[in-house]
Structures are given as structure tokens and as C-alpha cells.
Amino acid sequence: MYENENELKTVDSMPGSINELISTNNRLKRPPSLSESFAWTPENIARANQIPLISSAECLEGGEEDIDQLVKPSIKYCKYEKQIIEVFIKLLLHIVLISIFETLFYFLYVSSLENNGIETTVNTFINDAVANCMNISPLEIQIIDDFLDPYINATQVITKGNNAGIQRMIYNELISRRAWAYVGGLMGLFMALTVYIRCRRIKINWVYIIFENTSMVVLLALYELMFFNTIIYSYEPISTDEISRDAIRKFQGSCGILK
């Protein structure tokens, strides 16, 4: 070993040698190979041998980090993006579940209650009038028919009623499809936001969000059923006696009869 190490620039260059190609003011960064030994003096060989070698473990460790940086694309996250996305995904899931529940609840339960309530009120009013027909003689029936025939055409009334029932069913079917279209639109927004979350690799606690919103909707459904059965269904609408009173007053005021 020599105390004074010579720089590469102090070594005489040989025509066509490696030393001529790499002569510089910087120190040599690697040990010389055997094929290059003719280009170096003993001083330079001693200096080059003092350069510490990189262990294989260090090479592998650094290589893994470089590979990870190349394989995983860098994603820049906006400030509070995760919190904002969580709020929106919770709201959308809640609205989707509510829309499904409300659609099923109305068309399968509420609409039937409304129809039954109206039919019950009308049938009660009609049944009271029909009950008095049991004691009418055939002659009296003929007189009543002759009197009402100019004003009421039974065939036309029945035909109009059948047509109105068909039109009502068609219209209600359109309303039902519109309601499910709303549900589909909300589900589309929810799926689009889910795809965005997947693409952005945002970590969302799906188990907690789904459990929380499902529990809320189930509790809401139970409350709605209880409320309709104990409050709305028990509500007393206008009675048949009130309808009869209003009908008599109309006849008295407009026709001057039944006074």
C-alpha cells in the first residue's frame, strides 16, 4: 500500500487503452478488471482496491424499492378527499335503500290501504241504500226504472267504469316504472362512485357503512309499519252519514226536493 494515491490524470495514457477513455479528475468508482490491468500503475491499483464494495443484500434492498416505484403508479390524493367520498357514499347508499323501501312500501301496502278505504266507505253508503230495495215490489221497481231511465244509462255507466279501471291500472303502472327509474338512477350514481373509489384506491370501511345504513332502513321500515297500522289505518275518514247529509243538502239547494 502506498501513502500517496495518484489521480487518474497522473497516469500516462497508452494509445487505445481504457485509461485513455476514462481519464478524468474524478476518482475511479470500481475496481479495475484483469483485462484492464496493463493500463494502471501499482499506485492506482492500490487506490482502486481501497474502494468498498456494495454487498448483495444492499443491492437487493435498493432494487426492491426501485421495482415498487416502477410497478405502483403514483396517485396524488386531494386534501380531505377520503372524508368527502365517505360522506357521499354514505348518503347515496342511504338514499338508494330508502328509495327501494319507499317504492315497495307504497305500491304493495299503502296503495292497497287507500283503495280499500275508499271502497269500504262507498260500499257502506251503497249497501245502506240497496238494503231498502229488498222490500220493493216488482211494480215499484218498474216505476223507479221508468223514472230514472232518462237520467241514468246503466250500460254507459258500467262501460265507463270498466274503461276507467283499465286506464287507472295503466297509469299506475307508469307511475311504478317511473319510481323504479328513480331507483335505477340512484343505483347508477352509487356504482359510478364505487368505480371511482376503486380507481383511486381509496380505502372505505364498506362493512361498517353497509351495516349502519341497512340497520337504519330496517328500523325505519318497522316504524313505518307500526305508524300506518296504529295511526293512519285507524284514522276515521268522512263517514257515510256525512256523505248522505251532503247529498241531501245538494238536492235541496239545487233541485228543491227532499225538503
Can you describe this structure?
With 259 residues, the chain is mainly alpha-helical. It folds into two domains: 64 residues, no CATH class; 174 residues, no CATH class. Helix content is 69%, strand content 0%. The longest helix has 51 residues. The N terminus is likely disordered.
How far is the first residue's CA from the last residue's CA? 139 Å
Number of β-strand runs: 0
* Low-pLDDT segments, ≥5 res: 1-9, 13-18
Count of helical regions: 8
Mean of all residue-level pLDDT scores: 76
| Biggest sheet overview | none
Radius of gyration: 46 Å
Beta content comes to under 5%
Estimate nothing, just give the exact number of structural domains.
Answer: 2
| Secondary-structure element pattern, one letter each | HHHHHHHH
Structural class, judged by helices and strands? mainly alpha
The proportion of residues forming helix, as a percent range, comes to 55-70%
CA-based shape: elongated
What features would you highlight for this structure?
single chain; 259 residues; 2 domains; 69% helix; elongated; transmembrane helix; transmembrane; membrane
Give a short summary of the structure:
The chain crosses the membrane at residues 87-109, 179-197. With 259 residues, the chain is an all-alpha fold.
Describe the SSE topology.
Layout: H1 18-22, H2 42-49, H3 56-71, H4 81-131, H5 138-148, H6 154-200, H7 206-232, H8 240-254
Helix pairs in contact: 4-6, 4-7, 4-8
